[in-house]
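In response to the reviewer comment on reproducibility (Comment 2.3), we provide here a single inverse folding case reported in full, input and output, so that an independent group could reproduce the run without further information from us. The C-alpha cells appear first.
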C-alpha cells in the first residue's frame, strides 16, 4: 500500500502541520479534548530547550523552585502583576469525595501564589535580590487548540525576580532579554528582534517579566 502523502503547506497549512507532528511522532492527541501526549522525540526537544536555558539562568544566579499547581480560587481570578482576567480557568470543587469549602483553581499562571509567598519571605532590602525560575505546566481551558501551539495544558518556564531598585530590575530585564535572544539565535536557529513589551492600560510603568512558553 502506498504511503499517504502529506498535504503541501500551500494546499492546507493547518493539516500539513498536524500531520507532520503526528507522523514525526512528536506528539499525539490525548483522550481529553484539547490535551496532547508528548512522545519521546517531542519531549527530547523540550529537554534540550530546558538544558540550554537552564545553564544560562544558573550562570546569572537564578535558582529553580517549584510551586503547587492548585491555588485558591479567590486569589487566582486576577494576577498579582496585572489586571488580566483568565476566563478559561479550570476549577476544582470536589476533593477526597467531598465538596470543598473553597474552590481551587488549576494554575493558569503563577504570579499570584508567588507574590503571596514573597510577602512572607521578603521583609527588608536585605532579602533582595530574589532570583527564581520555575519549570512547570499550566492549564487554560482554551476553545481552539492545536498540537504544541495551543493546548489545554502546556509546558513553559517562568522567571520571577524582586529587586531593591528600579535600575536593578531594568538591568535584570535587559540581561534576560539578551539570554533569550542568544538561545533563540544560537540554539534554536530562530532570528529574533528584541523589543519592549507594550504596557497594559491603566497600569503604572514597570519592568515586565519575560518568558519563553513551551
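Designed residues, in position order:
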Amino acid at each position: 500500500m502506498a504511503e499517504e502523502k502529506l498535504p503541501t503547506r500551500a494546499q492546507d497549512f493547518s493539516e500539513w502541520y498536524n500531520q507532520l507532528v503526528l507522523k514525526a511522532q512528536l506528539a499525539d492527541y490525548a483522550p481529553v479534548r484539547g490535551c496532547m501526549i508528548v512522545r519521546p522525540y517531542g519531549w527530547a526537544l523540550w529537554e534540550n530547550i530546558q538544558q540550554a536555558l537552564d545553564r544560562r539562568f544558573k550562570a546569572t544566579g537564578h535558582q529553580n523552585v517549584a510551586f503547587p499547581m492548585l491555588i485558591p480560587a479567590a486569589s487566582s481570578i486576577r494576577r498579582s502583576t496585572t489586571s488580566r482576567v483568565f476566563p478559561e480557568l479550570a476549577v476544582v470543587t470536589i476533593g477526597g469525595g467531598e465538596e470543598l469549602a473553597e474552590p481551587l483553581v488549576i494554575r493558569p499562571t503563577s504570579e499570584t501564589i508567588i507574590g503571596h509567598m514573597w510577602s512572607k519571605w521578603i521583609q527588608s532590602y536585605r532579602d533582595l535580590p530574589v532570583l527564581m525560575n520555575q519549570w512547570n505546566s499550566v492549564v487554560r481551558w482554551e476553545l481552539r487548540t492545536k498540537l504544541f501551539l495551543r493546548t489545554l495544558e502546556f509546558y513553559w518556564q517562568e522567571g520571577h525576580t524582586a529587586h531593591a531598585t528600579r535600575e536593578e530590575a531594568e538591568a535584570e530585564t535587559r540581561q534576560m532579554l539578551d539570554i533569550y535572544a542568544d538561545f533563540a539565535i544560537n540554539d534554536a536557529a530562530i532570528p529574533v528582534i528584541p523589543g519592549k513589551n507594550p504596557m497594559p492600560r491603566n497600569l503604572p510603568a514597570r519592568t515586565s517579566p519575560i518568558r519563553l512558553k513551551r
